[in-house]
Write a structure and sequence with these properties.
Length: about 300
C-alpha cells in the first residue's frame, strides 16, 4: 500500500486504534462539524504519539470483495425491523466482518490477533471517493475490541452504568434491559457531582494489578454526560441492580455474582479460548471487587445509600 494520506486515531480504554488510508477523509460542512463536536465519540479521537495497538488500513473499492469457504460465526439483527445489522465469519486464518446496510455496506478482514484489519468501504454517495471514521466506529470497532480484549484476557465489555464518584473511585451498576440503568445514570448525573461515564457500555480492564473501568463511545438512552466519558476510574464496587419498593443492598459472593455478571457481558462465545479468557477474567474480578445486589427506588436518596455501603 502507498504512503497513507490520512491517519485518524482513537483511544478507547487505553487502547490506541490507528485508521490509515491513501484516500482522504470526508470533509464536513460547518453544520456537520458542529454536530460531530456534540457526538458521543468525539472525545475519543487521539492526537498523542503512543504506538498503535490496532491498525486498520482503509481501502475504498468500487465493489466489495467476496470470500469463499467462510464459516458463519455470529449474525445480529435489528430489534425492530428484523433486518441484518452485521455478521462475522471466519476462515482458518482470519475473520471477515460484513455489514449489508444501505449507505454503510462494508467488509472488514481481521487477523486472528484482532489487531490488524483491512477495511473495504464503498465511496460515499454524492461526496466522492472519501471515507469517514464513523463508518468504522459504529459498529465494527466495538465488535473488534470485544474480541481484542477477550483474545488476550485483558478486559470485558459490560451492559452497565459506570459512575466516577467525587473521590475518584469507580462504581458499576450492571443489569439486564429494564433493570434501571438509564434511570441510575440520570439520578447520579442530576443529583450528584459524580461523573457518569456511560449508561450501557462500560469496559473493565486489569491494569497495573488493579481493575479499572473505562467509558466507551457506545451508549444507551442517556446522553447528557458526553464530555466526561473518555475517563476511567479504579473499580471500587460492582452492583447488580433492580427496581424495588425500598433501597436495599446485599453482599454477594463468587457463585451468585458470576451468575449475575455473565448475562451482563458481551461474551465471544464463538471462540473457546476467548470465552475461557472472559470467564477467568470475571472470576478474578468478582474475587477482588466487592459485589452487591442492589434494589433501588427512583429517588436521589439512593446515591447516599450507595455511598454509605461498606
Amino acid at each position: 500500500m502507498s504512503m497513507a494520506k490520512t491517519i485518524e486515531k482513537l483511544k478507547i480504554a487505553d487502547t490506541v486504534i490507528e485508521m490509515r488510508s491513501e484516500f482522504p477523509v470526508e470533509k464536513l460542512t460547518e453544520a456537520e462539524k458542529e454536530q460531530q463536536a456534540a457526538e458521543r465519540f468525539n472525545n475519543f479521537f487521539y492526537a498523542g504519539s503512543a504506538q498503535a495497538d490496532i491498525v486498520i488500513d482503509v481501502r475504498l473499492v468500487k465493489s466489495l470483495p467476496e470470500f469463499q469457504n467462510t464459516k458463519p460465526v455470529f449474525i445480529t439483527y435489528h430489534f425492530q425491523s428484523g433486518d441484518e445489522n452485521w455478521r462475522l465469519r471466519r476462515t482458518p486464518s482470519r475473520y471477515v466482518y460484513s455489514c449489508p446496510l444501505e449507505d454503510k455496506k462494508q467488509v472488514m478482514v481481521v487477523n486472528k490477533g484482532f489487531n490488524r484489519v483491512t477495511a473495504y468501504l464503498l465511496p460515499k454517495k454524492n461526496k466522492g471517493v472519501v471515507w469517514a471514521p464513523t463508518d468504522l466506529i459504529y459498529d465494527f470497532i466495538q465488535v473488534l475490541l470485544i474480541n481484542y480484549f477477550a483474545s488476550r484476557g485483558e478486559g470485558i465489555f459490560t451492559h452497565a452504568v459506570g459512575v466516577k464518584d467525587t473521590d475518584g473511585s469507580g462504581l458499576i451498576f450492571a443489569g439486564k434491559s429494564g433493570a434501571g440503568k438509564s434511570t441510575t445514570a440520570r439520578l447520579w448525573h442530576k443529583h450528584s457531582k459524580a461523573r457518569v461515564l456511560n449508561d450501557d457500555r462500560i469496559i473493565v480492564r486489569k491494569q497495573k494489578g488493579n481493575f479499572y473501568m473505562h467509558g466507551s463511545p457506545w451508549h444507551g438512552e442517556f446522553s447528557d454526560y458526553l464530555t466526561s466519558r473518555i475517563e476511567s476510574a479504579p473499580l471500587k464496587k460492582l452492583f447488580f441492580i433492580h427496581h424495588a419498593k425500598k433501597n436495599t443492598a446485599r453482599r454477594i459472593f463468587e457463585k451468585d455474582a458470576f451468575q449475575l455478571l455473565y448475562p451482563a457481558l458481551f461474551p465471544a462465545f464463538w471462540d473457546k479460548a476467548c470465552l475461557e479468557n472472559i470467564i477467568s477474567f470475571c472470576q478474578e474480578l468478582i474475587k477482588v471487587v466487592p459485589c452487591y445486589s442492589l434494589g433501588f427506588v427512583n429517588d436521589k436518596k439512593v446515591i447516599g445509600f450507595v455511598r454509605n455501603i461498606k
